[in-house]
Specification:
Structural class: mainly alpha
Order of helices and strands: HHHHHHEEHHHH
Radius of gyration: 31 Å
Number of strands: 2
Strand order of the largest sheet: 1-2
Helix content: over 70%
Length: 232
């Protein structure tokens, strides 16, 4: 998680708060290493990887919010990590889940901004005019939700592509099965499409008609068999 490493350097510049700089660094690395170990173990032994992914994104949302708070809250350069988190979610989560995560990011940042601006929790950015706070909340939430919509659309497109790929593979398997069944029939068999073009021509049909399959496939059945085919 590269953004956690970025948070390490950001916390090195943090001097205010109830914890000392060394305490915050120790806490940060302890949480990061602990979560990494838990994620790794869950990935190896758990069967429901989707639920693990959902939980990881929720925890990352909380950690990003904490990082934003400790590195300047309203003026933190790490507000953009919300956008990164949502973008990554578009590759691993579904459309609805990605939208829910983007809304959660917007709500988390809004709650943090309100609490720091109202003095409910310690603010790294200092006192800010109400108009300035509203502007920061509005601009960042628009960006977060817009990226959420785009990521959700990407997730839906990826899901559709996976379904199409699965369908194509199924049709390919059916086509192979059809060819094998046709070839195994001892009776001469030729199949055509609605316009009369020959689609398949088995070995028995080659032996009976004297035509090779490569010479007749794709041609109109009337061209090959004339009135005999028209009368059947």
């Amino acid at each position: 998680y590269w953004w956690r490493t970025a948070g390490y350097f950001a916390l090195m510049e943090t001097t205010e708060g109830p914890l000392t700089r060394e305490d915050e660094l120790l806490l940060f690395f302890s949480v990061t290493l602990g979560l990494s170990a838990v994620y790794y173990a869950a990935l190896r032994f758990a069967e429901h990887h989707l639920w693990q992914a959902r939980l990881q994104f929720v925890i990352d949302l909380a950690l990003i919010t904490w990082l934003v708070w400790r590195t300047g809250d309203l003026i933190s350069p790490y507000i953009t990590l919300y956008i990164v988190l949502i973008s990554v979610a578009g590759f691993f989560l579904g459309k609805t889940e990605t939208l829910v995560l983007s809304i959660g990011c917007a709500l988390a940042f809004t709650a943090l901004a309100v609490m720091t601006s109202q003095g409910l929790i310690f603010s790294q950015s200092g006192e800010q005019p109400a108009m300035r706070v509203a502007q920061i909340i509005g601009v960042n939430n628009i960006a977060i939700l817009l990226v959420g919509l785009l990521a959700a659309r990407l997730s839906e497109r990826r899901r559709i592509q996976e379904q199409l790929k699965h369908t194509e593979e199924s049709f390919a398997d059916l086509h192979i099965l059809h060819e094998r069944i046709v070839e195994s029939i001892g009776t001469g068999l030729a199949t055509t499409d609605l316009s009369g073009r020959i689609y398949s021509f088995n070995a028995a049909a080659e032996k009976i008609s004297g035509y090779a399959a490569a010479d007749v496939i794709g041609k109109n059945v009337l061209e090959i068999f004339g009135n005999e085919a028209g009368g059947t």
